[in-house]
Amino acid sequence: MTEVLIVGAGLTGLFASLLVAERGNAVTLVAQGRGGLELSHGCIDIWGRATPSRALSRLRKSHPYRLAGTAALHAALEFFEEITQQAEYPFPGSISRNLHLPTALGAIHPTALAPQSLAQGDLFDGTPFTLAGIDNLRDFYPQLAASNLRRAGIAVQSVLDLPIPLDDTRHDFYTSDLAHLFDKSNWREEVARVWKPQLIGIKRLGLPAVLGLRDPQHVLEDLQERLGLTLFEIPTLPPSLPGLRLEVILRRRALNTGVHFIEGPRVVGRIDGRSDGRRVSGVVLQTVGGPRVHTADVVILATGGILNGGLVFQQDGRVQESVFDLPVNYDQGRGYWTTTSPLDSQPYSGYGLLVNDLMQPLDAKGAPIFENLYVAGGLLGGADRTMEGSRQGIDLATAYRAVEVALG
Amino acid sequence: MNLPLFTTDLCLKCNICTAACPVAAVTDLFPGPKFVGPQAERYRHPRLSMPDVSVDWCSGCGICSRVCPHGVAVAEINILAKGRLTKERHTPLRDQLIAHPELLGRIASPIAPVANTSIHLRPARWLLEKTIGISRHAPIPTFTRIPLRKRFRDRCFDTPLDIKHDIDHTVAFFHGCSSNYYEPELGEQTIAILERLGYEVVIPPQICCGLPLQSNGLFDAARRHAQANITWLAPFAKQGIPIVGTSTSCTLMLKHDYRTILGIRGEDVETIATSTYDFFEFLTIFVKNEINRIKFNSLHARALYHPPCKLRNHGIGAPALSILRQIPELQLHLSESECCGAGGTYGMKLEKFPVAYEVGQGLFNQISQLELDFVICDSETCRWWIAKHTGLPVYHPLEIMARAMDIQP
What we know:
The complex is a heterodimer. By secondary structure, chain A is α/β, with parallel strands linked by helices. Chain A is 30% helix and 18% strand. Chain A is built from 13 helices and 16 strands. In chain A, the strands form 5 sheets. Chain A has a 5-stranded parallel beta sheet with strand order 9-2-1-13-16, with helices on one face. In chain A, a hairpin with a 4-residue loop joins strand 11 and strand 12. Chain B is of the alpha/beta class. Among the domains of chain B are: 86 residues, Fumarate Reductase Iron-sulfur Protein, Chain B, domain 2 (Orthogonal Bundle); 112 residues, Rossmann fold (3-Layer(aba) Sandwich), CATH 3.40.50. Helix content of chain B is 49%, strand content 7%. Chain B is globular and about 55 Å long. At the A-B interface, helix 7, helix 10 and strand 9 of A face helix 2, helix 4 and helix 15 of B.
């Protein structure tokens, strides 16, 4: 049995931990706080700009997709589908054709796989739709979303503000507050009673993503039946329910397959092992009481990129890897990090670690630094995830590849 | 200024803490940790009274700090704000009372049979609820007739200088109020396990860690307790003797709260913090190989393990798990809930009880669906709370370990 330590509990870390545990190995997942998954739209973007399956074969050799390999991506997606099916939170969609979903600002988000409640909002589905906001929720404005969609040539049938059946509320609602309410069947009954008269003539209704956290698929089906129409959700500002639901599903499965979670401490250093320091034999965790050594046969870094704390951009122009200070591929000098137009591809978004096709980080000469240290997810350089629309696909594929190699 | 307040500006308002908060999930009386913490902190003037009192609904579980990816000490900010709130308002007799488990233990243990019978009588509970606001549905522990310290007088040492044996294989046991006055059998088994594994156990002088005082906003008193413990424990820690505790909240006080929340500085408190270990943390670090060699007896049972919030806040995961998993035939399920709701003394309060109970509902449901023989949890107040609301026995993981090692209570 191999003892694996994974640093980072976002999509990459959680997914990798499941892969390790379900092959019967001991895995510890350590993370300082909860990951970016909770802030995400909760879909799986693979390649936004064209048909994903075709675009991937034409990428540069240093692109994470090419390093992980197409087989890893397909195997990862298969496992992802198994996980979400078993959790009764299915993700319709496919790698050969993107869905086009509305964002809260009324932009168009191409994505390969989306939970059913989001996938039902496909803008090219042909069914007319209405967008509705919910009183007391400040994080979604249907008028704004509708006007931007209309500017892009998408027909929006109408825009509504729906009331919530409460006499008195003590404070503004977060999406999570509403989701907890929608988990209750008596609440859904009451909501349906109040909303139904306002929804006459509407076949498809888009709402901010608030339809339940514990059993969202059931909440969706139940509410659709009560209202007699198709519902779809649009992810909001955090708490982003679709991201949160996916995290809950992965976390619960990880817990039940024996993943040991260590939540809170920062990984502050590594312990080098035998063979002239070519192996990592453990890490140092900064716990509330003091530093604690945690040994492992294999370490997988899944700490994410600039948005997640895996990369730290310093005032003096250095870009550092936050846990082990591994070499990062970047442009020296802050002036090179961005371009003059904020909407263009930004150089900084491609910064990160360089790895070989075994997902081992490389030194300046292109040689692996440690035999048993692997990197996956947002920490990898060589991809502009925002412009490509490739973030979650890279996370899953590289996690799969790293685990596959690490466990041999 | 206290350090946690400096972390206020690290908050990006990402709401990860809001989504994780078990209290905000069940009541709109509490607007969430971000709202009452880093956000409201900006409106709290050092010399003006607190503009908003909703922070009082925080149960102090600490999940907000643990899930924050940006290093904001959310829970600490909230506990400090609760302390200020208490200073500005009058502290109810009830809060004074439940904040002193040690004092209660000292008074009640000599008359334990009488005290236990009378305090658990229904009219007595009714009266306590009506007069001072202790919920009659909340569990109240049973006092012991003979406290642990009296049972182990020969192991009580005032200073490490009096210890005659091998100091390298000695641990100092921080038993806390619970193992001394309420569950001395737990303390006995702790000592037995450590001795079986080749350690001498000494019991240094100590008083209540001060957590119940701190949680009820009585910071000055909590600080006095902390100072006393620091004075007594520092000589042991400085001799290199690990301080081991089985109550996860007491050990967290020694490791974290004394410095970060009570603001105590100095070499002594630092040494104590780095020398303190949770019981299972100690075993998995110091006697890992010996543990792996133990042949545990089979325990044919279905159980659920719920790691309490205060243990999770140590940032060490759940070290008991690796040992429980070594016990043959013990079918172990894991809690899918973050918090049982008890919140130390929170759930005892009449006005807080419904909220606390609803927080625990997820765990209670999971427990009832699994048809278990018993539940396992490290924290005493959580154990009493879960036992009361599920009707199942709830053990400390060390009791299960002791049973699988043939150590009788």
